[in-house]
């Protein structure tokens, strides 16, 4: 604060009011990267007791803030500079919005009077206009008197209704403005109940229970929205009271343990294609569920959907029973309507699913038991599967193509919200940002299973992990390529488009910053490295040498990758 004449109200400035407003609203951590005009904002945050985690790239800071929002149900806060730094954060902001993760991206910006006349200010950019198409909402604070209002507006918007990313623009000259300290404090307030519960219509609950009870092949699909809701007890009660088999989407794995007798992940394709009544809980009929259409679904399937955003209903298929409300309130209402009476789920349906599940589990076990050298994805993931089973509190972050797809199939989860991956938008580069957030927000060890290509998007954040001494273990599944590393350029004058450096030793990168590095070429070596890493709690990178021919193009998404009809 600035001094003032004796007896006068001391002055404060925009920097201090932003920090005071964040603290008043229980913000305890900021993820960011400093520079003009927000360096002092980060310094003040740290001096005030807010934990500041400084990154090497704004995109990764934004991904961390988004993951923090998913894990805590409070908006994660990302702080970036103006212009290019702001733009670097836009992928993370858009990803948070598509994934329905609450985050607030605060960026400094250039002086409005200069930007609006396009006079050529430092890093001049109309950031508000750029952010609007990719964010849930975008706001700008133009006066110091509106800082408290702007912070409150951003926080409520990020978490109310369907969560998402909010952009908050604060020009550098607003940060530097001054006001009397008492007058400034009077402009701040704490947001009360930022995400009010929303109860569904009683008649919709009644119709839902009636439809499920009359189904021959009912199915429940749990999406990451169900995990975000933290309505774990209510959801498990409904699963067990109803007796309906369920399929969890990847980030909902562990909400009800994957080894639960009603979990039919191992028979997912059969369950989707045969179900006649499907209850979607925090899941959307987007591309991840084939838009509820095509050979993956029965032509006669009827859908019931729980979603807090009513405009989501009928976005791809008719929704027979729209259940508009928050997941906790809605599932509790379903439990009351059920009142302990199980849905009449035919035994033949359970038997059909269990038979397929047992067959597929046996096939998976046989594949995991194979031990090719160099390693392939399955035998490389076997010790990770066993490690997570033995340490269920470990957080698993996962990205890549084959590295993502196979890990989803192989590694089972027993605890909710302990798996974070590329999610709805399929973005590569979330890995180390998500891993850092999981370690910071929970204090628990984190394993980031990365394809070698995906790892490259955020690799420099290994320095961030080492600088803060976070218990993050990075496992790079290294087959030397994007998808795989054995493509040949027919001209021979340069590497093929999918080929990366053969035999790269990624573990040496983390050793440069004081972390522990391992190169492994067998499952036993990987298991030993994982055990040593979790016991030491040191930042660790394990490079797993895989066969360059291991993997398929685009992983499970080959159908989305068009091929040229003209061949050379």
Walkthrough of the structure:
The protein has 23 helices and 19 strands. With 568 residues, it is of the alpha/beta class. Helix 1 (14-24) crosses helix 2 (39-47). It is globular. Helix 2 (39-47) links the parallel strand 2 and strand 3 (51-54). The termini are far apart. Helix content is 39%, strand content 17%. It has a six-stranded parallel sheet with strand order 3-2-4-5-7-6. A six-stranded parallel sheet has the order 15-14-16-17-19-18, with helices on both faces.
Brief overview, please?
With 568 residues, this protein is α/β, with parallel strands linked by helices.
Topology diagram in text:
Layout: E1 11-13, H1 14-24, E2 29-32, H2 39-47, E3 51-54, H3 58-72, E4 76-80, H4 84-88, H5 90-99, E5 103-109, H6 112-115, H7 127-131, E6 137-140, H8 147-159, E7 165-171, H9 172-176, E8 178-180, H10 181-185, H11 202-213, E9 218-222, H12 224-228, H13 232-242, E10 246-248, H14 268-274, E11 277-281, E12 302-307, E13 319-324, H15 327-338, H16 347-369, H17 377-390, E14 395-399, H18 402-410, E15 419-421, H19 431-442, E16 446-451, H20 452-458, H21 461-467, E17 472-478, H22 507-511, E18 516-520, H23 523-536, E19 540-545
Parallel strand pairs: 2-3, 2-4, 4-5, 5-7, 6-7, 9-10, 9-11, 11-12, 12-13, 14-15, 14-16, 16-17, 17-19, 18-19
Antiparallel strand pairs: 1-8
* Overall helicity: 25-40%
Strand tally: 19
**What does the main sheet amount to?**
6 strands, parallel
Proportion in β-strands: 15-25%
Q: Going across the biggest sheet, name each strand in turn.
A: 3-2-4-5-7-6
User: Can you give the mean pLDDT?
Assistant: 95
Low-confidence stretches are none
Give the N-to-C terminal Cα separation. 70 Å
Shape: globular
Rg, Å, rounded = 25 Å
Q: Number of helical runs?
A: 23
């Amino acid at each position: 604060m600035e001094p003032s004449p004796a007896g006068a109200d001391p002055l404060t400035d925009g920097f201090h009011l932003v920090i005071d407003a964040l603290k008043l609203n229980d913000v305890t951590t900021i993820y960011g990267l400093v520079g003009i005009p927000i360096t002092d904002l980060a310094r003040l945050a740290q001096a005030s007791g807010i934990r500041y985690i400084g990154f090497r790239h704004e995109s990764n800071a934004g991904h961390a803030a988004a993951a923090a929002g998913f894990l805590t149900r409070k908006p994660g806060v990302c702080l970036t500079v103006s212009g290019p730094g702001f733009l670097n954060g836009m992928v993370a902001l858009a990803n948070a919005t598509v994934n329905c993760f609450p985050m607030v991206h605060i960026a400094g910006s250039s002086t409005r009077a200069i930007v609006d006349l396009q006079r050529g200010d430092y890093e001049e950019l109309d950031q508000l206009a750029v952010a609007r198409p990719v964010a849930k909402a975008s706001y700008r604070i133009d006066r110091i008197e509106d800082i408290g209002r702007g912070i409150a507006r951003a926080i409520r918007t990020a978490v109310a209704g369907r969560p998402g990313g909010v952009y908050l623009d604060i020009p550098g000259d607003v940060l530097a403005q001054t006001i009397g300290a008492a007058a400034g404090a009077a402009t701040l307030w704490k947001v009360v109940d930022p995400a009010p519960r929303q109860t569904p219509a009683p008649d919709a609950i009644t119709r839902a229970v009636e439809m499920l009870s009359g189904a021959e092949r009912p199915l429940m699909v749990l999406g990451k929205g169900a995990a975000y809701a933290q309505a774990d007890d209510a959801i498990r009660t409904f699963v067990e009271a109803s007796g309906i088999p369920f399929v969890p989407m990847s980030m909902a794995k562990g909400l009800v343990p994957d080894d639960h007798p009603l979990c039919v992940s191992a028979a997912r394709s059969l369950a989707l294609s045969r179900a006649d009544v499907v209850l979607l809980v925090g899941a959307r009929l987007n591309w991840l569920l084939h838009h509820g259409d095509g050979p993956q679904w029965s032509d006669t399937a009827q859908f019931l959907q729980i979603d807090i955003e009513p405009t989501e209903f009928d976005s791809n298929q008719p929704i027979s029973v729209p259940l508009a409300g928050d997941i906790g309130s809605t599932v509790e209402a379903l439990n009351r309507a059920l009142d302990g009476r199980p849905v009449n789920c035919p035994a033949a349906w359970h038997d059909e699913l269990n038979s397929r599940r047992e067959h597929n589990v046996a096939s998976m076990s046989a594949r995991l038991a194979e031990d090719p050298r160099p390693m392939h994805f399955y035998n490389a993931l076997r010790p990770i599967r066993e490690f997570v089973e033995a340490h269920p509190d470990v957080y698993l972050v996962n990205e890549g193509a084959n590295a993502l797809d196979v890990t989803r199939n192989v590694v089972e989860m027993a605890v909710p919200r302990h798996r974070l991956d590329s999610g709805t938008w399929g973005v590569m580069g979330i890995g180390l940002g998500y891993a850092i957030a999981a370690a910071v927000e929970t204090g628990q060890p984190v394993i980031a299973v990365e394809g070698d290509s995906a790892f490259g998007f955020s690799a420099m954040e290994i320095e961030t992990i080492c600088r803060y001494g976070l218990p993050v273990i990075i496992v790079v599944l290294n087959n030397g390529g994007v998808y795989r590393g054995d493509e040949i350029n027919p001209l021979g004058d340069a590497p093929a488009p999918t080929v990366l450096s053969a035999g790269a030793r990624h573990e040496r990168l983390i050793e440069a910053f004081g972390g522990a590095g391992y190169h492994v070429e067998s499952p036993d070596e990987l298991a030993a490295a994982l055990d040593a890493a979790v016991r030491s709690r040191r930042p660790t990178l394990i490079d797993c040498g895989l066969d360059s021919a291991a993997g398929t193009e685009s992983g499970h998404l080959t159908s989305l990758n068009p091929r040229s009809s003209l061949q050379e």
